[in-house]
Amino acid sequence: MQDRPEIEAVLEMESINSTPRIHTGKSSSTDAEDGVSLTWKDLRVTVVNGKNGRPILHGLTGFARPGELLAIMGPSGCGKSALLNALAGWILDPHTRKAGDILINGHKQTMAYGTSAYVTQDEALIHTLTVTEAVYYSAQLQLPDTISRSEKKQRAETTIREMGQQDAMNTRFFASNGFPCPTLQNPSDHFLKTIKKDFDKDIKEGFVNEIPTEEVINILVNSYKSSDIFQHAQTEIAQICKQHSRAVEKEKRHVTFFTQCHVLTRRSFINMYRDPGYYRWRLAVYIALALTLAVLFNNLGLSYGSIQARGALLLFVTAILTFMTIGGFPSFVEEMKVFERERLNGHYGIIAFVLANTISAIPFLIVISLIPGTICYYIPGLQKGFQHFFFSISTLFASMMLIESLMMVVASLVPKFLT
């Protein structure tokens, strides 16, 4: 995953200095006092495999000031996402080790909920929800209960209207070290080809003065460590740590557990209703199979031989309706992706998700148990009486709930299956 991650620091510091900083006295001071500064020193991330460890991040150092935009650039696989995950506290793999200091306003503490947000490049969304619904449900899970529903909806609509993005780049650092961007060449492509080992073939054909990529990376890293940019970063980090004397208070802005369950239940119910792969297709298949079994075991009668036929019928009904729960596996895996992302962002916990998902699934499981179960109960002529029928449907529903729960357990253990 990592060729030489030190180059990331070079690109990082280049982006910091791409635009001159403007100090306007009172405004800058106010931003520094009220904002949150983030610094990291000698940050290292290593994947442990047995006795051996494979480094992903090698001693990165940097800072981010309030009111500024920091761009971290680099080729694919250089560790950009690993750095952001480490800063956001998303290193949850038991085989991954993180070392170094991550300071907020000069204090070692975790990101406070409500003061930071992390949007990844592969954001997971529930595809059955509209844009408005997705943003609105997210607002209900994140904004406190002191805000009314109408205001939350208004904020969601405002967010949708104001979405946008900006781009910026600078090429001075590479040019000063003997790797200028050629005329009519895209600077981004030039940077990537300069430090990415996958483009060694281009180098052999005359790119970058035929210097091997490893040597290019070493030149840039050593140049950065001896440059004024590196010294400036060290000075800035020291000033940030001295400037902020107070730690960032963790705001208790979480919605209540009841609100979390209510919102998640509504969202999950809508997803299950709109996604045909969750229950609708399964219900159609169950009805077709139930009619087939009902015809095959029609009018069993009360003879001695009907005992074995009744047992076979009940076995087929239970086996088919429970084992075909795997049909909803892909849909639940997609929902698990959204859950993992939102849980890491602190929107809600595991209990709220499990409880909401279970409650929203109950109506669908009742329908799936009732309709096919009724067909397979009365047409073959099983035991008369509502109590016997109710017991049969209840047993089938309990079996469906059990298998559905086991399917969710398996999906949580192998979340990337079928993806």
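Above is the first protein from milestone M3; the second protein from the same milestone is given next.
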Amino acid sequence: MYFLVSLLSSSWFLSPSNAYLSESWSLMSSDRPNVPKCVDIPANLTLCQNMQYTQMRLPNLLDHDTLREVVDAARDWENLLRLNCHPDTQLFLCSLYAPICLDKEILPCRSLCEAVKKGCEPRMSVYGFPWPEMLSCSRYEDGDMCIQPVNSLKPTEPACSACKQVATYENLVDNFCRSTLVVKGKVGSVLPNSIKVRNARSLKKGDRRRSVGDTEIHLSNAGRECPCEVLNTNDKSSRVLIMASRDAHGHYVANLIVPWQKEKQFKRAIHHFQRLNCHSLGREIRESARRRPHAYHMRTHDLPPL
């Protein structure tokens, strides 16, 4: 995000003496059709709230001419944002739906697009959503004048994604269906790359054991030290929600670790676990999207038959 901050704080950009920029700004503020202008990011554009700028360029980079069209189209990506599939998802999507308002278009870098696609496309494909052509990374190039990725994982950093999950309804349900072990329990011991869970209770539907004995869960499948801030607590009585899958060696590897919560969406997800049919979850999501007249895939492509 440093690139955006630098552009916003540039003295050249803010200088009223710059004749070219003054003329450009005048054009952007005019009411002539098809002329870019600056508008405030509306409160109901939920996808792009809490960005480091408050005004967007209209028409946007996806050729939406009105704020209503932008809001309707962007709404279909809110669930993807809540899946937490990549930390730069919002940055990438909002660079297209609500681009920062400057005197020229600032496109996302190809590296930003590819990073988000790599993180999110597998999660989308599980539910029958292909990566849409309108977001094709071939449309963008890398360079100095594009929005670069902020949270790309460096090769030397351990992949502790389980400890960086968000407790949104969508992310909890998605991870529930992708995990073979889902438990509520206390953390018994914490090692550099694994934890032991005690007094755990299974939340998987039809699991007759219910009570789960002390179980070792690896924090990553890389075998390296994996710091996990979620587990940095001296309160041994606090409970956590852990979801994990078995690797090729039969070890449990965590997909998600979050503190047990009383928040509304968290409780909704927990209650939904008992009646959740993971085999039809993708169908339900697709049918729900089809019932919405502004669904993004209706603008760009047809989904495969159910």
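Note on the second protein: The two ends are 40 Å apart (CA to CA).
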